[in-house]
Amino acid sequence: MTVSFEKVRNSVENTFHTLDCTGAALILFHNNEMQVEQYWGRQSNKENVRSIQADTKFHLASCRKSYIAFAVAFAIFHGYIQSIDDEISLYLAPEQQKEVFKGITIRHLVTHSHGLAYINGEDIRTFAPGTNWTYRGRNIELMQR
């Protein structure tokens, strides 16, 4: 059975054009074999620059979000996490649990809406979970645990 990845390829190409990017790349593996290798655009919007190719280096903002989303989906699929709405205390070792973590769910960590700040080695809450959001690395550290 041959698997077609045309929809994925088209989606990436459409996103490239919609976002008015200077360049994009798609490398897709399936069953440990490369199925798609496609490049669009150029390395910048300046004149006389290279086309995007296999050795192009991209400046990626927030690329870890994709890895985190995949890791959480993988954990749910394999039963390591029951629900993204579970409180994080269910998954922390007893010595890692703190009162300030009460009410914070995996969803709050993933969506940056946890309300935690890590200041001078101490977790503090700057807003109630789910009521606001801010980029802070504390959620990443907690998800790694």
What does this structure look like?
The chain is an alpha+beta fold and 145 residues long. 27% of the residues lie in helices and 17% in strands. It is built from 4 helices and 4 strands. The chain has helices at 6-18, 64-77, 106-110, 138-144; strands at 23-30, 33-41, 116-119, 122-125. It has a two-stranded antiparallel ribbon with strand order 1-2. A hairpin with a 2-residue loop joins strand 3 and strand 4 (122-125). The longest helix is centred in the middle third of the chain and has 14 residues, at 64-77. The chain starts with 5 loop residues before the first helix and ends with a helix. The mean pLDDT is 90.
Please give the structural blueprint.
Blueprint: H1 6-18, E1 23-30, E2 33-41, H2 64-77, H3 106-110, E3 116-119, E4 122-125, H4 138-144
Antiparallel strand pairs: 1-2, 3-4
Primary descriptors:
145 residues; alpha+beta; two-stranded antiparallel ribbon; 4 helices
Class of secondary structure makeup:
alpha+beta
Helix content: 25-40%
Described by strand count, sense and barrel closure, the largest sheet is: 2 strands, antiparallel
Q: CA-to-CA gap between the ends?
A: 40 Å
Tally of DSSP helical segments: 4
Q: What fraction strand?
A: 15-25%
- Shape descriptor: elongated
Instruction: Tell me the strand order in the biggest sheet.
Output: 1-2
